[in-house]
Amino acid sequence: MKIGIVGLGLIGSSIARSVVSKEEISSVVAIDTNTSSLEAAASEKVIDKGGTDLSLLEDVDLVILALPVKTALKIAPEVVKHMKNGSILTDTGSTKVSLVRLIQPLWPRYVGSHPLAGKESSGYLSGESAILRDAICVITPTPSTDKACIETVKMFWRLCGANTVLMSPSSHDAIMAVTSHLPHLLSFGYMHIIENSVVPRSLIGKGLKDFTRIAASDPRVWKDIFFDNKDNIIPLINEYIKELEKLRSYINVGKTEAIEELLRQYSKIRRTLDEG
Questions:
Q1: 56 φ, ψ to 5°?
Q2: Contact 88, 157 (CB under 8 A)
Q3: What is the CATH number of domain 2-167?
Q4: Of the candidates 56, 87, 81, 99, which has an alpha carbon nearest to the alpha carbon of residue 153?
Q5: Domain range annotation of the chain
């Protein structure tokens, strides 16, 4: 199978590194506007061919849009113009409803994907095959998605080292808002507290660094995610504010037993996240 990767950033280059030596993959083609990334990938033999022209995708069997959601939405209509009949299109977007809504009518052999992998740094040089190894990749077909295309996409992600699960695009976006999107938003927002505090950097401990590690992520990527999934994120922000107001009220009026019980509930919930 010949694959084409559109976007050689963190995830795109990690995909290329994961499959380039697999016997099931006959060739890896990459498209990127950053010629330095393409040159580096070619010199490291991470790809077989690369360029800026989408026409390179004309004989590819599987195309992966490894791009931020907003960019993928913009370029997808152009990508499908260069794909051959029978080829399959997937992506790596962090939200799925808008992508499925746009792409499926344009290319029926589209299967949405989202590898739950990454790190706070971005770009070609940040990619590594280990990022995808044992990661979960959510695949988001609709009732009209071709079953054979789903199986091919599942096989591809297994070649990358990932484990696949299937769910609807809307369920994916709702779950990601809870498990990823709101936590990133809170981490970003806390940087305002840090910037305006008088705490010496030398006194910032591991707990704060753990909590705010993801605030170093690419703002352009996360801006698009927040806007694209706002219908799920805004209700969660409101719910979080209510919980903070409850905590503030308990502390303000001295409800020591009530807040201890609340903290005990929180702690119990957190410990269950590691079970299984």
A1: -65, -15
A2: no
A3: 3.40.50.720
A4: 87
A5: 2-167, 171-272
DSSP 97-118: HHHHHHHHHH-TTB-EEEE---
Q: What is the pLDDT along the chain (276 residues), one digit of tens a residue?
A: 999 999 999 999 999 999 988 999 999 999 999 999 999 999 999 999 999 999 999 999 999 999 999 999 999 999 999 999 999 999 999 999 999 999 999 999 999 999 998 777 778 888 888 999 999 999 999 999 999 999 999 999 999 999 999 999 999 999 999 999 999 999 999 999 998 888 888 888 999 999 999 999 989 889 999 999 999 999 999 999 999 999 999 999 999 999 999 999 999 999 998 875
Q: Please work out, in degrees rounded to the nearest 5, the angle formed at the alpha carbon of residue 109 by the alpha carbons of 150 and 69.
A: 90
Which spans in the chain are helix H? Answer: 10-19, 35-43, 69-81, 97-106, 147-159, 169-176, 182-195, 206-212, 219-228, 230-253, 256-272
CA 156 → CA 16, 87, 112, distances in Å? Answer: 12, 13, 13
* 17's tokens: 């590194």
Same fold, 2-167 and 171-272: no
Give dist(CA 122, CA 112) in Å, integer: 22
For domain 171-272, give the fold: 6-phosphogluconate dehydrogenase C-terminal fold (1.10.3660)
